[in-house]
């Protein structure tokens, strides 16, 4: 059983526990459920932003503890101030040491930037839950979903105003997963079976992603030259997590990275 298989099995248990604890009606009555979410597409195309989706992540299954000494409010505010086009917040507890409260705290600290709920969505309940805790964007991972699920989940997300980031790892996943309710496709350079990384995955898939979709490259991005090459290949956004989070001050790390990217 791969790490991904283990995560999905655990997620099934979590979702059932969540449904037993909080009803759909309870979630839909939350203060955030009625807010109008920010558009990921708009922020990615905004020239005043950087295209970077900066991630708050304490731990990963492959690396262990990355940084558990910083607050989600301080880090996400600093990411926003440095021009993040969106902020990704891990909400998986068992494997990434995240929590849904992290996303709500990031929302309270940042009203003017899209927030991505970074988790392993396998049920419509999690989509309703995402909006209830303050998310603007959900992640759909093609490797763990059928085309029918992607179609249903992306339609539901769109109906409640959420943007969808569809994540693929190879050409087969891309070709079977594209859906008109999805505006943004992310290429994950990390192999979710063994968690190895290679940015070449993005370059290999770039030409196969139709122009109808914005393109994001995820993982294995640690220097500004890589971003410049990815932009030349047609990528609009870049999800960066560990490169910032493994520093003592992730917000400062992003600010320095952006300064170099902009040539300051």
Secondary structure blueprint with pairings:
Elements: H1 3-21, H2 24-28, H3 40-45, E1 52-56, E2 59-60, E3 64-65, H4 72-81, E4 86-90, H5 100-109, E5 115-118, H6 124-132, E6 137-141, H7 147-159, E7 163-168, H8 171-177, E8 184-188, H9 200-206, E9 214-218, H10 224-232, E10 237-240, H11 242-245, H12 250-261
Parallel strand pairs: 1-4, 1-10, 4-5, 5-6, 6-7, 7-8, 8-9, 9-10
Antiparallel strand pairs: 2-3
Can you walk me through this structure?
There is one protein chain. The protein is α/β, with parallel strands linked by helices. It has one domain: TIM Barrel, CATH 3.20.20.70. Helices cover 42% and strands 16% of the residues. It is built from twelve helices and ten strands. The strands form two sheets. Strands 1-4-5-6-7-8-9-10 form an eight-stranded parallel β-barrel, surrounded by seven helices. A two-stranded antiparallel ribbon has the order 2-3. Strand 4 (86-90), helix 5 and strand 5 form a beta-alpha-beta unit. Helix 4 (72-81) crosses helix 5, helix 4 (72-81) packs parallel to helix 12 and helix 10 (224-232) crosses helix 12. The termini are far apart. The model has no long low-confidence stretch (mean pLDDT 96).
């Amino acid at each position: 059983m791969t790490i991904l298989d283990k995560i999905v099995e655990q997620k099934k248990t979590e979702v059932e526990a969540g449904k037993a604890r909080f009803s759909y009606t309870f979630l839909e009555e939350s203060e955030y459920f009625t807010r109008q979410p920010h558009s990921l597409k708009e922020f990615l195309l905004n020239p005043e932003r950087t295209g970077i989706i900066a991630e708050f992540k304490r731990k990963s299954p492959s690396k262990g503890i990355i940084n558990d000494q910083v607050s989600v409010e301080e880090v996400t505010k600093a990411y926003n101030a440095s021009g993040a086009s969106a902020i990704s917040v891990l909400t998986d507890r068992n494997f990434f040491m995240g929590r849904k409260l992290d996303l709500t705290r990031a929302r309270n600290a940042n009203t003017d930037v899209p927030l991505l709920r970074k988790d392993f969505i396998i049920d419509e309940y999690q989509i309703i839950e995402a909006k209830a805790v303050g998310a603007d964007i959900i992640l759909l991972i093609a490797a763990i979903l059928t085309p029918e699920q992607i179609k249903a989940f992306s339609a539901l997300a769109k109906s409640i105003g959420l943007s969808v980031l569809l994540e693929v790892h190879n050409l087969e996943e891309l070709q079977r997963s594209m859906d008109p309710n999805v505006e943004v496709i992310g290429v994950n350079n990390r192999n979710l079976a063994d968690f190895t990384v290679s940015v070449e995955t993005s370059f290999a898939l770039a030409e196969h992603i139709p122009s109808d979709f914005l393109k994001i490259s995820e993982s294995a991005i640690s220097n500004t030259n890589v971003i410049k090459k990815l932009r030349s290949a047609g990528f609009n956004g870049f999800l960066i997590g560990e490169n910032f989070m493994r520093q003592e001050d992730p917000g400062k790390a992003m600010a320095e990275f952006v300064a170099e990217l902009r040539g300051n």
